[in-house]
Amino acid sequence: MRDWSGHLLQAGAFNLGAASILIAEATAMRNGLRAAIEARFSNIHIEGDNKILIQAVQGRIQPPWEIQVLVQDIIYFLQKYNHVIVQHIFREGNRAADWLAKLGLSLPSARVWNQTSHIDLHCILSEDNLDYTLARRVA
């Protein structure tokens, strides 16, 4: 979670074992929304690189059965906000979340940070705040 200027408010990572990417992304979104509610945010802007999850949350497609309950939870949490934006971004624009997901694979239990404690994450967030972007690779 970041504030309006892009500064880190809270980050988390966890290991779901052999869960699919779709389940991991939906679980992370649900957990992040729950944390944002606990922090009493009233406006939220969600960016995600999993097009299926984003479209399911937007109501544009029926969620796959494996994330149906998670999407229901997400939609329930979204109703608690005054203003909500949910949009798809390419993976290159979601490097911080990607970095945290990879870190989560190596963790024995869930971790939450309220400040940037790792230099790699700090660099990713700084570059993102400066609108530094990676070129999208095409095959």
From TrEMBL:
Span of domain RNase H type-1: 1-103
The family database entries (InterPro entries) matched by this protein are listed as: RNase_H-like, RNase_H-like_dom_plant, RNaseH-like_sf, RNaseH_domain, RNaseH_sf
Q: Name one GO molecular function term.
A: RNA-DNA hybrid ribonuclease activity
What PANTHER family does the record point to?
A: OS05G0353850 PROTEIN (PTHR47723), REVERSE TRANSCRIPTASE-LIKE PROTEIN (PTHR47723:SF23)
In its UniProt entry, what is this protein called?
A: RNase H type-1 domain-containing protein
State the organism of origin: Opuntia streptacantha (Prickly pear cactus)
The record lists the lineage as: Eukaryota, Viridiplantae, Streptophyta, Embryophyta, Tracheophyta
